[in-house]
Design a protein that fits this description.
single chain, about 280 residues, alpha+beta, six-stranded mixed beta sheet, five-stranded antiparallel beta sheet, about 35% helix, elongated
C-alpha cells in the first residue's frame, strides 16, 4: 500500500473516530448532564385549580424512561402523547393540547377547551362539529338536544380522544342553532330540541308544551319565511297575541303550508306565502 493511500485511509479512520467521539460527547451532555433537563412547565389555558394536579402528573411522567433507555425529562425527548393523555383525563373538555419547548429548561403546554353549543344533559355537551364530551363548566342554560338512534364514533386527533356524531352533524347542528335564534326572537324560548329517526326536528319551549316542527331536508330560509308570514296573518296572529301559552305546535313539514294547533281547539291553516290563507277551525 502506497504512502498516499495509507494517509487517505488514516484520514477516514480519524474522521470516523472524531464523529464517534462527538456523538458520545453529545450523548453525554444531553442525557448525563442537566443541560437540557426540563425544570419548569408553563401551563397556558389550564384552570388554576387543576395546575398542581397536572404538574404532579407531568413530573411523574418525566421520571420514567423513554423506550426504557432515554430519559423523559429532556427538552427534546418529552412524552408528548403521555402528556396529552394526562391532561385530557383531568380536563375532559380539552379540544387540543399544544406542547412547545421554550428555552433549554421549560416546556410550554397550551390547552384549548371545547366550545359547547348544546347539552345532552347537565354533564355532557355537544360542539358545533358534533363532538360529544364531558363539560366541567355549568351548561344548564344551554338547550338540550336529543338525537334518536344516533350512532357515534371515536376519533383520536393527535392524542386527544373524542366521541363524534356520525353523518354530517355540522350542517344539522348549524341549522338547529340558526332556527333556535329565530324562534327565540319571535315565538318562544327554545330549551330542548329533538331529532327523530325520520329527520324531523322539533323545538320545545321551556314548559315542554309548545313546539315548532321542521324537516331537516327542507330549505331553512323558505321554511322560516313561511313561518313569519303565517304568524303575521290572522287568525294565527291574533291567537298568538292572546293565547300564546296555549300553542301546541307549528308544523312546517308539508311544503309551503304551516299547520298549527292550540289547546282547547284546533286551528289548521294551509298557509302559502304568496296567497291568501285558508283556515279551518274545529272544536
Amino acid at each position: 500500500m502506497s504512502r498516499k493511500r495509507r494517509r487517505i485511509l488514516w484520514s477516514k479512520v480519524l474522521a470516523w473516530i472524531g464523529c464517534l467521539v462527538a456523538l458520545a460527547a453529545l450523548f453525554y451532555i444531553c442525557f448525563r448532564t442537566s443541560t437540557f433537563s426540563i425544570t419548569d412547565y408553563d401551563l397556558v389555558g389550564i384552570p388554576d385549580g387543576n395546575k398542581t394536579e397536572i404538574k404532579n402528573g407531568l413530573e411523574e411522567i418525566a421520571h420514567n424512561t423513554f423506550y426504557k433507555v432515554l430519559p423523559s425529562n429532556r427538552i427534546f425527548s418529552y412524552r408528548g402523547l403521555k402528556i396529552k393523555s394526562l391532561i385530557t383525563k383531568i380536563l375532559p373538555n380539552t379540544e387540543s393540547v399544544s406542547i412547545i419547548p421554550v428555552g433549554l429548561h421549560t416546556l410550554r403546554i397550551t390547552v384549548t377547551e371545547y366550545n359547547p353549543l348544546f347539552k345532552i344533559d347537565n354533564k355532557h355537551a355537544v360542539t358545533k362539529d358534533g363532538i360529544i364530551y364531558e363539560e366541567l363548566k355549568d351548561i344548564s342554560s344551554l338547550p338540550t338536544i336529543e338525537i334518536a338512534s344516533s350512532t357515534t364514533k371515536t376519533i383520536n386527533n393527535d392524542g386527544v380522544v373524542a366521541t363524534v356524531l356520525n353523518g354530517d352533524p355540522k350542517a344539522l347542528l348549524s341549522k338547529i342553532s340558526d332556527f333556535i335564534e329565530k324562534i327565540n326572537s319571535v315565538i318562544f324560548i327554545v330549551t330542548k330540541v329533538k331529532v327523530n329517526e325520520y329527520g324531523d326536528i322539533t323545538f320545545f319551549d321551556e314548559r315542554g308544551v309548545s313546539e315548532v316542527i321542521i324537516s331537516n331536508d327542507s330549505d331553512s330560509k323558505k321554511v322560516w319565511s313561511n313561518i313569519v308570514s303565517a304568524i303575521d296573518t290572522d287568525p294565527l296572529k291574533s291567537k298568538l297575541n292572546s293565547n300564546k301559552d296555549d300553542l301546541v305546535y307549528l308544523d312546517t313539514r308539508f311544503g309551503n303550508k304551516v299547520f298549527y294547533k292550540f289547546r282547547n281547539g284546533v286551528i289548521i291553516q294551509n298557509h302559502v306565502a304568496t296567497t291568501t290563507a285558508t283556515t279551518t277551525i274545529s272544536h
